[in-house]
Amino acid sequence: xxxxxxxxxxxxxxxxxxxxxxSPDDDAFDDEEEMDAAAAAAGIxxxxxxxxxxxxxxxxxxxxxxxxxxxxxxxxHETLLRAEVDRAVARxxxxxxxxxxxKLRELAERYWREHPQASxxxxxxxxxxxxxxxxxxxxxxxxxxxxxxxxxREGGRKT
Amino acid sequence: MERAPPASASEVFAIxxxxxxxxxxxxxxxxxxxxLGWAESARHRAFVLEPTELVNRAIDALLxxxxxxxxxxxxxxxxxxxxxxxxxxxxAMNERTGGAITRRGSxxxxxxxxxxxxxxxxxxxxxxxxxxxxxxxxxxxxALAVHRLTCEGHTERAEIAEALGWTAAHVKAVRLRASRRxxxxxxxxxxxxxPPLSDR
Lengths: 159, 200
What we know:
The structure holds two protein chains of two kinds.
Chain A: H1 10-21, H2 32-41, H3 46-65, H4 76-90, H5 98-114, H6 116-136, H7 140-153
Helix pairs in contact in A: 4-5, 4-6, 5-6
Chain B: H1 9-15, H2 18-35, H3 51-64, H4 77-104, H5 107-114, H6 120-136, H7 141-151, H8 157-164, H9 168-185
Helix pairs in contact in B: 2-3, 2-4, 3-4, 7-9, 8-9
C-alpha cells in the first residue's frame, strides 16, 4: 500500500482522482466478460495486438544490437561541426532522457550553422585544415599556384 | 549462470504476456478517459484520445525513449501495469494541456501552461472540474464518498475499503457505478473549466 500524502490544493486533488481512475485496480468495467464484449465490439484482437507490440520491441532490440553503420566521409567543415556538437552535449550524456539529448544536439547544430560568429569561426578552422585537402585534390587555384611556384624555381619570370 | 533480468522497455515488451496485460491497460485507459470526459463517442473534440490509442502511445513512447523507462518496472506484471498506467496518465494530462493551448491560442496561455507549478487560475480550473465530477455523482452518496476519499489521496481500492469499512468488492462495485455515471455524463475536464466547444 502506498503512503498517504494529503493533497495541498485542488490541482493535487484532481491528480489523485485521475490516479484513482487509471490504476491496476480495474474498476472501469464489471468483469472480463463485459470488457471482452466491449473489445470485440471495437474489433480488438488481443493476440494480434500483443504480437504487434512484441514485434516492435524485437525490432528495437535488433536495431540496438546492430553495429553502427560506418559514416560517410565528411568534409572538414562537417567533421568540425560534428565535433563541436558532440562536445556541447557531452556533459548531458546519461543525465537527461534521449529525446532531450536529441533536442540539444539539434539546437547546438543550428547554433554552429546559423550564428554568424560561430559559423565564421568554424569556416576559419576548416580553412586552416584545408592545405592537407588541397594537396590531395588540386583545385584550379591550387594548380595555378603550383605552376607559378614551379616557374619561380626554374629561375625567374618568363616575359 | 543466471540470466540477467530484462533492463530496457524493449527487452521487457518483447517477452510480456500482452494477452493478459492489454485488457488491464484498456480498462485503466477507459477509466481515465471517462473522468477526463474523453470517453467513447466524445470524438467531437480534436484532442480526444481513444483507450487503444492511449495504450499504444504509452508503449511507443517507452520504446522510442520519448518517455523514460524506469529499471525494475518490468519485474512483475503488477509493476508493469502500474508503470504503464502512470505513463498513460502523464500522456493524457499532456494532451489535455495541449488541447487547452490550441483552444486558447494565446502566448500567455502557452506560457502559463508550460509552467508546471500551481497558479490561482489552475487551482480554480481544477476546483471547477472536481465540482463537475461531484455534481455528476450527486445522486449516489456511496460514489460521492469514494470520490472524496480518492481526491484526498486514498487512490487504492484496499485503502478506501478500510476507510469506509466496506469490502473491497463493494468498493469495486461503487467505483464501477461511478465510472458509468461519468461516462454517461460526458464530462469535460478542459483546462479552461468550460464545457466542450460543441456545447458553447
